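Posting here for the record, re: 1,3-dihydroxyacetonephosphate.
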Amino acid sequence: PDNYKRLIEEILTLKNDKNYMILAHNYIIPELQDISDFTGDSLQIAKWATKINNDNILFLGVDFMAETLKILNPEKNIIVPTKNSTCPMANSLTPEIIKEYKDKYPDAPVVLYVNSTAECKALADYTCTSSNAVEIVNKIDSDTILFGPDKNLGRFVAEKTGKKVVVIPGETGYCYVHNRFSVEDVKKAREKYPDAKIMIHPEAPEEIRSLCDYTGSTGQMMKFPEFEEADEYVVGTEIGMIHKLSKTFKDKKFYPLKEDAICNNMKKNYLKNVYFSLLNEEHKITLPDWLIEKAKIPILNMFKLME
Ligand code: 13P
Ligand code: SF4
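Prediction output follows.
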């Protein structure tokens, strides 16, 4: 524990000396959330990115989020503790698959979940996040939408908007953390915590979502307990959320829907590599200018639709 405390002190010293801001996704380990300047969901991170004054940012999350930060702040120095923290769902979609579907549905706009690579974003008309996917698709003037890569979020959007949502790549596009929640998990949680409200992320399958009390992004989950009388909540997303919820709502209790709902890639950010990242100012996010220019378009289109 002494070493651990010293490591945190050294990280904070480096952060101050080198003038870095630390920005983290809600799934990051508690120790790192606690020393971050900002924690949020993917939409909050993207929005925050447009307002940062600091030139140096250490980002804790997965690669597509760091890329989005770079796309919105090409002139800033953005570093990550590891280049290996990726999102398998984002990687399930490729530019080739998008082109194939664009040929089949030439008039359908392409809406991509921010959980996608910069190369795929470069071919999209709009991006969306789990907080605003329904709003964005509702506002687009088309009844047919090509949507990827999350089939579960795509189905949620179809259900809420009544539009024809063609999911790309299809069955292989899902998040392994959220797709593993089962009917049995919800049944067990109801038995164990009969008074609790169950929250679920829209990346979970429809048959699970329909059994829960509230569906929302990690950012929306942070607001739900504010307006509810319940003292207990079961949280159907990555376990990193439990820390943030418990810290924010000190009088309420939060339990994971599944103890092992862990995004291994988010957990590749830990104290030691954060220390070395600040010490050596690595690993820098770099993207070619053409890619930044193209991938920025659907992100800015998303912001415009939200105005
Ligand atoms: P949020 O935008 O809800 O934070 O979701 C990001 C994500 O990767 C969920 O698995
Ligand atoms: Fe990707 Fe799922 Fe991890 Fe989110 S939780 S970053 S969707 S693998």
